[in-house]
Amino acid sequence: MKIKRIYSVTVENRSGVLAKVSGLFARRSFNIDSLAVGETHDPTVSNMTIVSSGDERTLEQIEKQLNKKLDVIKVKTFAESQCVTRELMLMKVKYNKNNRREIMEICEVMGADIVDMSLHYMMIQICDDPDKIRLLIDMFKSISIVEVARTGSLALSKCCENE
Amino acid sequence: MIGSDIIIKCLEEEGVKYVFGYPGVAICPFYNSILESDIKTVLVRTEQNAAHMASGLARITGKPGVCAVTSGPGATNIITGIATAFADSIPLVVFTGQVNSELLGSDVFQEADITGAAESFVKYSYLVREASELPRIIKEAFHIANTGRKGPVLIDIPFDVQNTQVSRFKYPDEVSLRTYKPTVKGNVAQIKKVIKELENARKPIICAGGGVLLSEAENDLRSFVEAHAIPVVTTMMGIGVMPTDHPLYFGMVGNNGKAYANKAMNDADLVMMVGARVADRAISQPDLITKDKVLVHIDVDPAEIGKNAVSSIPLVGDAKAIFKELSESEFEADYDEWVTSLDEQKASYKSSRKPSGAYVDPAAFIRKLSEKMEDNAIYVADVGQNQIWSCANAIVRKGRFLTSGGMGTMGYSIPAALGAKLADPGRQVVAVCGDGSFQMSMMELATFVQSGVQAKIVVISNGYLGMVREYQHYAYKDNYSVVDLSGSPDLEKLVSAYGFDYMRLERNDEAGKVIDMFLKDEKNVLLECIVDPMDLVKD
Question: Which residues of B487-516 are buried (b: 16+ CB within 10 A; e: fewer)?
Fold first, then answer.
């Protein structure tokens, strides 16, 4: 059975580390559903949020193989329910005077913002959990999506007093 | 002092005695600086063999073997050797020259992205940007290569970095790596569980892999099993953990192993895998070692535990430390009945081989050769039918059995034997290969001559790539494709050109006499054994 898991991986902030980590997934046929990388408050450390899926044994192997990489400092894993996940999406849509009102209403309901506009196009921004983002894409499928850019999920485990 | 002087000073600090390699412009500063040092260089005839020689040396000394080759083709040629070492967890430190830093990425002459290309075959790799980083990097490289699960480390050094002036040299006393702290000691709770299971077990067995030899835990394992009369089988890489004539040793497992060794694994109620990966050639059906039995998996690499078989008791740690911990726990158990039943199965085993008599029977020959070899001799087997015959028949007492188990790299035995002989010149070292694998490494005969290392090489000659021919015999009903070795040289003429003695054996009845001459010969010597081209490895 396929289970979804989120890996929050702190790594040395050096050139080539992303290639080593993504190469590991490719070589061992592990899935990458999404991958987001950025520097942390410590400039020598980067954080990678990797969303993957597979059976329990594969997910355990992913964690062990990540831990084996010498550039990996720490691997934390969690199910979606144990963490706060956020993803940013920018979406360009084509509009006309008939659906402009509808688009604005959807954005309002979904908590999305219109961040750029021209005569026939507008750009919508949403920052939310991945389910909401999927929902927004679905809502716009009947309208007219021109382009989509997504960051992939970021995740941190939920706050807990004894951290 | 320049960067390359620093590298050599670091190698001296590490106690390196030999560097195997092949120069080119990009590694010339290194080979110029080494002239000032007592470290000896061995010029190989193709770079792949530098890694195999370093591997042979590492496996005997227990310290990383060192290679240095040039950029581009030098670096890409050594990849197979690095991958071979990686598959068998052999510690190497490999230096590659690289084009000038400012030219990196511009596809200039002899530029290859070697750290990228070798990524999946190295434990770690470095591309050095500043000469001042060299001491730290080299210190780390030796530490990483030879701790935890051992393996090759690659250091790629641009030409300008080797030539950079450095004002001072200080070799770090220790490494500080926040991401790398291998577990050595076993978890106490897990050790207790293992002891409890051993107490409950009636039919336990230990399957020892190459990890036991890598952690130099043979004696610890032997005293543990002798104290409790626990039978032992090994994987191919574990051959030599137990003397082959030890009453508690029941042979090699796997699809080319002894039937009674595999049966013992299947019949056991507790299997302790130690330093073995549960890979397909040793354990073709991982389910069978977990079904109806307790699987204890001991490995220094946590990722190996649970990868191919789900264990009941995972135990991460170094085999030597763990056997020490296990030995300190007392427990009562009586496995006599089990050992007796295994003895009976072993005794009743009859080989199905029917040697024709018109040729040398490789099985009988290898038994006789290894029996006549010195007690602590090193037997280096190549890859192919010769390897399987060697595994099934070689007698190992206090010596070692080296082969390329994980990668199965043909041509391994000749260079590895050279490295092993350099590691311990007083020991007898014999390389046993086929006529296919011999031709993959025969250029290294010159290296033996040049470096003054004595060569003792046996070629099991059948005019075929025998292992593949055998596969085609079964899988394609004797429709042979690209396995006929016609065109091979006259080995007598060939080795004579290198000043070697040549001996030839065509029938087993002369084997004893010829083997004596071969082992006594003080010159470089090659013994060719003519075996039946249609012979099979079936035991």
Answer: eeeebeebbeeeebbebbbeebeebeebbe
Q: Cβ B301–A61 below 8 Å, yes or no?
A: no
* B11 SS3 class: helix
* Pairwise CB contact (< 8 Å): B302 & A70: no
Burial (CB count <10 Å: 0-12, 13-18, 19+), residue B371: middle
Domain spans of chain B? 3-163, 188-348, 362-530
CATH classification code of A86-153: 3.30.70.1150
Predicted TM-score (pTM) of this structure: 0.95
CB atoms inside a 10 Å sphere around CB B258: 20
Cα separation of B92 and B57, whole Å?
Answer: 10
How many angstroms away from the CA of B178 is the closest CA of chain A? 7
What chain A residue is nearest to B181 in terms of C-alpha separation?
Answer: A70
Q: Which ipTM did the prediction report?
A: 0.88
Q: Any CB–CB contact under 8 A between A22 and chain B? A: no
Tell me whether domains B3-163 and B188-348 share a fold. yes
Q: How far apart are CA A71 and CA B178, in angstroms?
A: 9
pLDDT in tens, B470-527: 999 999 999 999 999 999 999 999 999 999 999 999 999 999 999 999 999 999 999 9
Round to whole Å and give the CA distance between B361 and B355.
6
Dig out the tokens for B143 from the structure. Answer: 């530490």
Say yes or no: domain B188-348 is CATH 3.40.640.10.
Answer: no
For A3-78, the fitting CATH number among 3.30.70.1350, 3.40.1190.10, 3.30.1320.10, 3.30.70.260 is 3.30.70.260
**Phi then psi dihedrals of residue B82, to 5 deg:** -65, -45
Structural tokens at position B340: 């007796």
Q: How many Cα atoms within 13 Å fall on the side-chain side of residue B58?
A: 31
